[in-house]
Amino acid sequence: MKVIGLTGGIGSGKTTVAGFFKELGIPVYIADEAGKTLLETNEAVRSSVIKLLGPGAYTGNIPNRKYIASRVFSSPEDLEKLNNIIHPAVAAHFEKWKQEQDAPYVIYEAAILFETGGHKKCDAVILVTATMEERLARLQKRDSSTVEEIEARMKHQWSDPKKLELANFEIKNNDLASTRAQVRNLHEILLKPSKNWGLLC
């Protein structure tokens, strides 16, 4: 079964694009959601996070997400260590999930797919892009973040031009009708043998 990576910068609209693939009957695995679930339910992950960040990382079995975020976004070293705890657990969970699917391909959606080398396990990668103005507007509406807070989070992700060098396909997500049409077109391409995909669409 083909694995198609789906990624994009914060606020680009990956979730929207993933939803359009779901409408077409394609199974979608949201790595970030899986990571959050494993933080709560996987004892080995919980133990490793507490060892890394201290007991303040949890209240009982519930992750203290604000505390964790404050620690890792101010320390690139701790962020890398946290990723090294969560990403292998997510990868193992995904492999089990994939075996349960029955589809021509599945979507693996991850915010930092390129940054972690996850794209190397995909047959192709879709990059979702949007204008900076649109991304900022979406994020401010979604969680009331300030421009400074958003820009600080963006610094932990690669730029779109850098990602485009490795992506196989690009979806420009500035207008929902256009985005849905792009997904439909790309779906038809992905149903074909990979040799007919081309380099960048």
Overview of this protein structure:
Strand 3 and strand 4 (62-63) form a beta hairpin. The protein contains nine helices and seven strands, in the order E-H-E-H-H-E-E-H-H-E-E-H-H-H-E-H. The mean pLDDT is 90. The longest helix is centred in the middle third of the chain and has 24 residues, at 76-99. It folds into two domains: 1-27 and 103-201, Rossmann fold (3-Layer(aba) Sandwich), CATH 3.40.50; 32-100, 3-Layer(aba) Sandwich (Rossmann fold). The chain has helices at residues 14-23, 31-41, 43-53, 65-72, 76-99, 132-143, 147-154, 160-164, 176-190; strands at 2-8, 28-30, 58-59, 62-63, 105-109, 124-129, 169-172. The protein is an alpha/beta fold. Helix 2 (31-41) packs across helix 3 (43-53). Strands 2-5-1-6-7 form a five-stranded parallel beta sheet, with helices on both faces. It starts with a strand and ends in an 11-residue tail after the last helix. The radius of gyration is 17 Å and the shape is globular.
Please supply descriptive tags for the structure shown above.
201 residues, alpha/beta, Rossmann fold, five-stranded parallel sheet, two-stranded antiparallel ribbon, 9 helices, 7 strands, globular, EC 2.7.1.24, cytoplasm, ATP binding, dephospho-CoA kinase activity
